[in-house]
Design goal:
Blueprint: E1 7-14, E2 18-27, E3 32-37, H1 46-57, E4 60-70, E5 77-79, H2 81-98, H3 106-111, E6 117-119, H4 126-194, H5 202-215, H6 219-238, H7 243-264, H8 267-287
Parallel strand pairs: 3-4
Antiparallel strand pairs: 1-2, 2-4, 5-6
Helix pairs in contact: 1-4, 4-6, 4-8, 6-7, 7-8
Amino acid sequence: MIKSMTGYGKQIVESANRKYTIEIRTLNSKTLDLNMRFPGSMKDKEIEIRNLMAQELERGKVDVLLVMEEKSSEGAVQINTTMAEHYYQLVKKLSENTGEPMPADVLSILLKMPDVLIPKEFDADETEWAIVLNGFRQTVELVNQFRAQEGAVLTPGFQQHVQEILNLLTEVDVFESDRVAKVKERILLTLSKQAPDVQLDMNRLEQEMIYYVEKLDITEEKVRLKNNCTYFLEVLENESSVGKKLGFIAQEIGREINTLGSKANNSDMQRLVVLMKDELEKIKEQLFNIL
């Protein structure tokens, strides 16, 4: 079964001292477009997660977020004393230059300044990272489940549009038998009007007509169009991660429809071709979101 490239998964895992929130969002993209946001203490683990995303999600625009929270207030943040003292000296100098007294709550002001309160750094040991990595695997599984559900919703639409093309193809047969007769009739009528006094060699004229009518024959195009539509439905039903493959099949379907239109030489058949193209465009629009 097909999968959509739209997916979402969220998982919360905990170690003895910390809680980790993992979120993964995916949208459609021709390649794997990965955007990751990790705590500074786990930046060295990004490559491992990139490999996991490439293996399990294959392609799409993928946003990965890892948020770490300390369970105890002691381990949550630390004071950057160097930066705090720097801000204090700036405030003190400004006070001296302006003649204004130092604010009574200078300490609370300093704590609000950028980079004074910073997350406490730590090195994640193997046990800690194993918990986080397992959380990522669970989240990826949720994303794939979401993608499969979205694909299941899209599948009936594809089937309906392809079946409609096949239905329209059967209607072509209704007009095809009259088409050749009308072409011959039109040619003879034109000749009689343009050259009424010319004696025609009917044998030669018949040969030329046969050659001309053969160029308008659409038997092969109908067979190929039907086969391509059937193949599309088979791939749709029996394979996964086939967005690109279905796109190639849709191109072949479009090629045969265009050839039918160029050979039709019949207004009723041209109308059917236009309707086929409309169904094919609906298929192509949805294929952008198929994995």
